[in-house]
Write a structure and sequence with these properties.
The chain is an alpha/beta fold and about 250 residues long. The protein contains 6 helices and 6 strands, in the order H-E-E-E-E-H-E-E-H-H-H-H. The protein has a 6-stranded mixed beta sheet with strand order 1-2-3-4-5-6. Strand 5 and strand 6 form a beta hairpin. Helix 2 crosses helix 3 and helix 4 crosses helix 5. The longest helix has 24 residues. The radius of gyration is 20 Å and the shape is globular.
Length: about 250
């Protein structure tokens, strides 16, 4: 599905694309976000749980400070080259994309080597030590091929490169962001114990399960902010019914 002008203006409650500063398109089945090229004032955009496969359209959003892309189809970390020209970018959520690969450490180091100005990556605070380590432990990326529509799997380059720092940006004034919802979830459930450097398959599976539950709760909390009183009441009734059913099941066992 293509993100259209009508959709943007409706969700952002704006009259013109160039005035849009914040946009929430979570779970909208989007595949084409090319209209982002026409939103130079965009500061925060939530595109999580869609089917976006290229970051090129947001490369022109020079004011962008927060980008949420969890659960999309970004094929390669080479797509990060489109974000290198965004001096205000401080928050990036890229987890659960094909580009993350099988090695979480290498993935994080490569992202931070490419975007050292990030303060938060995948809802985890970036430390100065990580940025320093990323210089040697991360991999250099090259711009993705311009052939096709950005759905291919561009190769990565592995030579050393230098990094640049950029100026500070303002904090997010949004009442409820995807990052904030995850923080609330973190207060409701215990943190997972420290893991071995080389966790077993069962451990990785357990961690993945916890992350999935965390992501579901984050999504629910994020969506609650858009509901009216009638919608909230419907959610309340559904939660009560679900809890009653679970209690009955426990009693039967």
């Amino acid at each position: 599905m293509k993100l259209t002008r009508k959709m943007v203006l409706s969700r952002a409650k704006a009259s013109e694309l160039h005035s849009v500063r914040k946009l929430n398109c979570w779970g909208s089945r989007l595949t084409d976000i090319s209209i982002c090229r026409e939103m130079p004032s965009l500061e925060v955009i939530t595109l999580s749980v869609n089917s976006v496969s290229t970051l090129e359209p947001v490369s022109r959003c020079r004011q962008l400070s927060e980008l949420y892309l969890r659960g999309n189809l970004i094929p390669s970390l080479a797509e990060l080259s489109h974000l290198k020209g965004l001096p205000r970018l401080r928050v990036l959520w890229l987890a659960e994309n094909p580009c993350c690969g099988p090695d979480p450490h290498l993935y994080r180091m490569t992202v931070l080597r490419t975007l050292p100005q990030l303060q938060t990556l995948d809802n985890q605070t970036v430390t100065e030590e990580e940025v320093s380590r990323a210089l040697t432990e991360g991999e250099e990326i090259t711009a993705p091929s311009r052939e096709g529509t950005g759905n291919g799997q561009p190769e990565m380059s592995y030579t050393l490169s230098t990094v640049n720092t950029t100026s500070e940006t303002q904090g997010d004034p949004m009442s409820y962001s995807e990052e904030a919802s995850s923080s609330v979830q973190g207060q409701l459930s215990p943190k997972p114990p420290a893991q071995d450097p080389f966790p077993s398959f069962s451990q990785r599976e357990a961690v993945s399960s916890r992350k999935n539950r965390s992501n579901v709760l984050s999504a629910i909390l994020l969506l609650l902010r858009d509901l009216d009183p009638a919608g909230l009441e419907a959610v309340h009734q559904t939660v009560v019914s679900r809890l009653q059913a679970l209690h009955k099941q426990e009693d039967m066992e």
